[in-house]
UniProtKB/TrEMBL annotation:
The gene is Micalcl. SMART domains: DUF3585. This is MICLK protein. Pfam families: bMERB_dom. InterPro entries: bMERB_dom, F-actin_Monoox_Mical. Residues 19-82 form a coiled coil. It comes from the Eukaryota. Residues 45-160 form the BMERB domain. The keyword Coiled coil applies. Keywords: Coiled coil.
């Protein structure tokens, strides 16, 4: 009996010693998880800022492009009038005016291609932003224990 009671006492002592170390490990794991979550949020924020800056740069380039297109359009209208003989062409001959006209058309086509490229970049940025938001939403959904989720939560998680 004496040995049995000593055994049970020592066993319960071990149990008490084991629990604090378990909670210490759990606390450490929780701290690591929170630190990782914080770092992930910072990275996401940095990526969002990069996309924002890139989107602003694209927007500025589109505005500048629009201005250049307007200027070309005005020049083109004047050149057309001169070619038709509606405006005073001064010392320009018809060959020189046609050459300017074709240069103008080439420049305008180049600007239109550039505009298309910028619009594609802008669309890519929008898609990257949308993907980032979906990933964040999925992380939040997956952080919740499955036992606490109802059917709607599980379906939404699958849909994401």
């Amino acid at each position: 009996r004496k040995q049995a009671s000593e055994y049970s006492t020592s066993s319960s002592d071990d149990e008490f010693e084991f629990k604090p170390s378990l909670t210490h490990k759990a606390k450490r794991a929780l701290r690591r998880r929170r630190k990782l979550e914080k770092e992930t949020k910072q990275l996401i924020k940095q990526e969002e800022l990069k996309r924002l800056h890139k989107a602003q740069a694209v927007q500025r380039q589109l505005e500048e492009l629009e201005e250049r297109q307007r200027a070309l359009e005005i020049f083109g209208v004047e050149l057309e009038r001169e070619l038709r003989g509606e405006a005073d062409s001064g010392t320009k001959d018809e060959t020189q005016m046609l050459h300017e006209w074709f240069e103008l058309v080439l420049e305008k086509n180049k600007l239109m291609r550039y505009e298309s490229e910028l619009l594609i970049i802008a669309q890519e940025l929008e898609l990257e932003d949308h993907q980032s938001r979906l990933e964040q939403k999925l992380r939040e959904k997956m952080a919740i224990d499955d036992s606490l989720k109802d059917e709607m939560d599980l379906n939404e998680e699958d849909e994401i």
